[in-house]
Amino acid sequence: RDRSLITVAALMASGILDTSLLHHIQRAKANGVTALEMSEALTQLAFYAGWPKAWAALRMAKEVYGTDRA
């Protein structure tokens, strides 16, 4: 679970915003990361990695979690 969050964070911060990130967000969900936790992690990362990257990742998370929360 924690490794999944770290992987998502590393990919987003590196600017890898393709299907690789999507896959790892899906794995994070399967490993127990909630929509709220993912949303909070990506929002926190936005301040350090940049908002454009975060918005792309948040859109993917919203697609994966199927909620307005991510």
SSE topology:
Elements: H1 2-14, H2 19-30, H3 35-49, H4 51-65
Describe the structure.
The protein is mainly alpha-helical. Helix content is 79%, strand content 0%. The chain contains four helices and no strands. Helix 1 (2-14) runs antiparallel to helix 2 (19-30). The chain is globular. The mean pLDDT is 94.
Keywords:
mainly alpha, 70 residues, single chain, 4 helices, globular
Outline:
This protein is mainly alpha-helical and 70 residues long. Helix content is 79%, strand content 0%. The protein is built from 4 helices and no strands.
Task: Sum up the overall morphology in one term.
Answer: globular
First-to-last CA distance: 17 Å
Strand content bin: under 5%
Backbone CA Rg: 10 Å
**Series of secondary-structure elements, N-terminal to C-terminal:** HHHH
Query: What percentage of residues falls in helices of 4 or more residues?
Result: over 70%
Largest sheet: none
Overall mean pLDDT score? 94
Secondary structure: number of strands: 0
Low-confidence stretches: none
Total helical elements? 4
Structural class: mainly alpha
